[in-house]
Amino acid sequence: PAEGFAEAAMRLVSGRAPRGLAGEHFRNGPGWFRYADSATGHWFDGDGFVQRFAIADGAARHSGKFVDTPKRRLEQREQRIVMPGFGTRGDNRAAIENPDSLNAANTSVIIVGDELWALWEGGSPTRLDPRSLETFGVQPLRADLAHMPFTAHQKVEPSGRIWNLGVYGDRCIVWRLAANGAVEDAQLIQLPSRSYVHDWAVSERPLIIPLQPWIHDRMTAPMVDGYSWHGDRPFQVLVLDKNDYSNRRIYELPAMFFFHTGDAWEDADGAIRFDLCASANADFVTRQARSMISEEAGQTPSAELVLATLHADGRAELQRSGVRGEFPQTDRRRQGQARDLVVVANDREVSTLELMNWRTGEASRFNFGAEHMVQEHLFVAKPGRSAERESWLIGATLNVRERATELHVFDAANVADGPLATWRSPYRAP
Fold it and tell me: Are 329 and 378 in contact (CB under 8 A)?
């Protein structure tokens, strides 16, 4: 449907809901890519589709709605792709007043106060009602900073304080927001390069900005064509003191490409550690993410989960796990604090969910089977429990064979045993 799906019951197809599990799980992602005679040029440019899974009394319900952005309203009216994007050229009917004219609101969501914000890295948050998923509109964070970039990978401290970046070229806004979304501080800093920055990390004291050698070195349309891979350059990591951005250090690692980090922490000796999913080059973003829309053949290997360590003496090193996948997730109660576990999803070579323990070096995996496309699973604390493994992992897959969206609940201590419960929707959500 053009607007989405009204709330519907999901059918329990295996297991049963764990006692004490109740709440809401929200997802966002690009979900609309084509009209009869036109399509986006890149996976990243699809219209945002927000999903809500509600669990109560052992049952699950699903609803989903496209974010009502100016971009989507125009293209629904024209019944064709009009607006330019990251990998889409657009056409002369595009009505562009500011960056939020292009805002697809399609990458992530965050609860802020009593609202749900849909995020897109090139502009402002878009405000939604978390119950109905109705769109309220774009939320300027501050009047004098309206339409400035606000990435889709914010970091939330255990206190509720929100950190984020807004990157454009070799400059970057560092945002600091209160838990209710009020801007506490916004400062402009200079970056060492015009690197593509999609995700980053925050520890208790430093801000960690990874700068890969995929560099925006020419202005052209679409934007993705203005980036070049420079494999002869190092992967840099800029570390800033939270209390003084002029107090900065730069570390260097071998060239690699990444989209997503897990989280960061500091050891007693001052070393900073953060995990990320790394690839040898930018082939996925430049080639495969386009072929996914054009339906041409071609696939790149999935990324590998690695752990970067930045030592106090300036050395940097990388620990490889052998675990393949993307969208690393950690226990958010421990944001910026020491922890062992990270979970990744892999739907390229094999449809798996894999939990890595950096302390023991052991990994536990569950294979969903070839008919599933696996999405990231989040840690949810069991009531009254505090350890990382005393959590559930909750997330969705697209069951291609059944043409349905499924919701799964795992015990983080026994991922290989499979889901404790699986619910299936009566339709396939995009």
Answer: yes
Euclidean distance between CA atoms 3 and 73, whole angstroms: 11
pLDDT above 80 (res 276): yes
pLDDT, tens only, 284-307: 999 999 988 887 756 778 899 999
Distance CA 366, CA 418 (A): 6
Q: How many angstroms separate the CA atoms of 273 and 264, rounded? A: 5
Q: Is 370 left (phi over 0), alpha (psi -120 to 50) or beta?
A: alpha
Q: How far apart, in whole angstroms, are the C-alpha atoms of residue 346 and residue 78?
A: 36
268 secondary structure, DSSP code:
T
Tell me how far apart the alpha carbons of residues 257 and 198 are, in angstroms, rounded to a whole number: 11
Between the alpha carbon of residue 325 and those of residues 282, 343, 412, the distances in Å are 15, 9, 17
Q: What is the pLDDT of residue 349?
A: 72
C-alpha torsion 118→148→233→330, nearest 10: -30
Q: Distances in Å between the alpha carbon of 17 and those of 56, 390, 407, 409, 421?
A: 9, 16, 11, 8, 5
For residue 234, cis peptide bond before it (omega within 30 degrees of 0): no
What's the Cα-to-Cα distance from 429 to each of 149, 422, 425, rounded to whole Å? 28, 16, 9
Distances in whole angstroms, Cα of residue 128 to Cα of each of 113, 165, 298: 11, 21, 36
* Cβ neighbour number for residue 58 with a 10 Å cutoff: 13
> pLDDT at position 53, please?
98
Between the CA of residue 407 and those of 17, 97, 389, 417, what are the distances in Å?
11, 39, 20, 16
> Could you tell me the sign of the dihedral formed by the alpha carbons of 287, 288, 293, 294, in that order?
positive
**Burial of 346 by CB count in 10 Å (0-12 exposed, 13-18 middle, 19+ buried)?**
buried
Per-residue pLDDT tens digits for 153-198:
999 999 999 999 999 999 999 999 999 999 999 999 999 999 999 9
Residue 377: helix, strand or coil by DSSP? strand
* Cα–Cα dist 171/190, whole Å: 5
State the DSSP H helix or E strand holding residue 289, giving kind and residue range, or none if neither.
Answer: helix 289-294
According to DSSP, the residues that pair with 30 across neighbouring strands are 48
